[in-house]
Amino acid sequence: MKPLLEHIANAVNTPFFLYHESMIKSRIEDVLNVFSTVDFQPTFAVKANANPFLLSVFHAYGIGADFISRGEFEASRAGGIPTSKMTWNGNVKSEDDMLFFSKQGIQNVNIDSIGELQKWGHLKKNHNVPLPSLFLRINPSIEVSTHPYIKTGMKQHKFGISLHDIDTCLRIAQEVGLTLQGFHIHIGSQITDSDSFEKAYSTISKLSRQYGFTNINIGGGWGIPYFDKKQLDLQQMKSFVTSLFSHFRIWCEMGRYLIGEAGWYIVRACENRESEVETMCITDGGMNHLLRPSLYKAHHSFSSTDPIPQKKSVRIMGRLCETGDILVPSTVQNCPKEGSLIAIHQSGAYGFSMANHYNGFPLPAEVFLSQNGEWTIIRKAESNTCFLDQCDSGERYDITH
Ligand code: LLP
Questions:
Q1: Structural domain includes residue 251
Q2: What separation in Å is there between the alpha carbon of 349 and the centre of ligand 1?
């Protein structure tokens, strides 16, 4: 792997993101297998990774797109995904976007609140445009074990409609002439215990029977093994899915599970600085490209092309002006030699998609490694001054008008 990585690094410069086709395919096959006994309509949650080339890989397997914004919508289109295979999620939706996406012919929308339901009623009354299929996102009040920032299914969270308000929603829908197609649920992200999904899936299947819906959108949330190596039990998931969903059409919006382990953030070790307790390996990457460790204290695993044995622990750091600019927290592991390449694992999901221009560094390249060993640049690195592009338009406004 070292010669190949060096070869790519020479061509695109570090840091960069690298994705491996075989891992993507194997995860797609895992998911398709879990749902093989039910009527299944998968979409990929574009927020996890919006690279159009990768979206086209999902599209080749019949996987549609779950998008949030016009940007993610355009990325999905660029990946060849037809609007008839797109689901729109969004915590708050503008009427302008509602009209735009309806005109584009998207397939489904998940309604997040009573206020939003009323807006759809308004749109129907005022515009003669076919609406997408309407799903009601419910908040089932289920506690899950994951970072607090990515739990979404409890009463105190801003997402979805409480179970007590379902009847009100159905009444409003009837009054404004809307037909709802089903319920949607998403209890959080990076969940590796299957019991939480069993609770969520049973709740939504029971409610759907009660209200006579035949479509269910189960969201995403499936966790992957990071440093802790905790894995979701797919056998169990298959048994819940088969027993709970056999009479339904099931939609999903899976992000991390499909792409997380298929991506690495590749950085170069620049300097090893010693403290009494550990070696701090400072790289040319940073939290500007891989924010998860700083934002959620996520612990990704790593490997390097030239590890040197040592007794102390090692911490992999970025080069930004923040003490919290950590890529991998303190770990007892061989230290990358200065000048070697380091692969931060599990970086395919919420890596590039959360990258930013902090400290004025450009966004990095993305590279795709095919099963046959060929590699392709699927996004070029930005120029050093790209973040200045929209500044100083020269327009002046007079505050007296
Ligand atoms: N559906 C909805 C409504 C969502 O909000 C999300 C993720 C997904 C599907 C996909 O979830 P997944 O299968 O990827 O868990 N930035 C965080 C993760 C935020 C997830 C936001 N919503 C992280 O890096 O861990």
A1: yes
A2: 9
50: CATH: 3.20.20.10
- pLDDT score of 395: 78
DSSP label of 306: S
What tokens appear for 308 in the block? 């040197």
With a Cβ cut-off of 6 Å, ligand 1 is lined by 45, 47-48, 66, 89, 150, 186, 189-190, 219-222, 253-257, 292, 296, 349-350, 354
Cβ(87)–Cβ(251) under 8 Å? yes
CATH number where 332 lies = 2.40.37.10
- The answer to whether the CB of 382 falls within 8 A of the CB of 33 is no
In a domain, 28, yes or no: no
Task: Say if residues 302 and 347 touch (Cβ distance below 8 Å).
Answer: no
C-alpha–C-alpha distance, residues 226 and 223, integer Å:
9
**Nearest alpha carbon, ligand 1 atom 14:** 255
Residue 182: helix, strand or coil by DSSP? strand
Nearest CA to ligand 1 atom 19: 150
**CB of 93 within 8 A of CB of 132?**
no
Predicted pLDDT of residue 401: 65
Say what the pLDDT of residue 89 is: 97
334 and 221 inside one domain:
no
CA distance linking residue 150 with residue 159, whole number of Å? 11
Residue in 332, 329, 342, 282 with CA at minimum distance from that of residue 312: 332
User: Would you name the residues annotated as active-site residues?
Assistant: 321
How many structural domains comprise the chain?
A: 2
How far, in Å, CA of 207 to CA of 213, rounded?
A: 8
| Residues above pLDDT 70, as percent of the chain | 100
112 vs 106: CA distance, rounded Å: 17
Q: Among 49, 66, 38, 36, which Cα is nearest to 220's?
A: 66
Residue with the bigger pLDDT between 310 and 99: it is 99
Query: Residue 159 belongs to what domain range?
Result: 35-259
What's residue 394's pLDDT? 76
Per-residue DSSP letter, 350:
S
- CA–CA separation, 210 and 342 (whole Å): 53
Number of Cβ within a 10 Å radius of residue 230: 14
Q: How far is the CA of 267 from the centre of ligand 1 (A)?
A: 25
User: How much is the pTM?
Assistant: 0.97
Do 205 and 245 touch, CB atoms closer than 8 A? yes
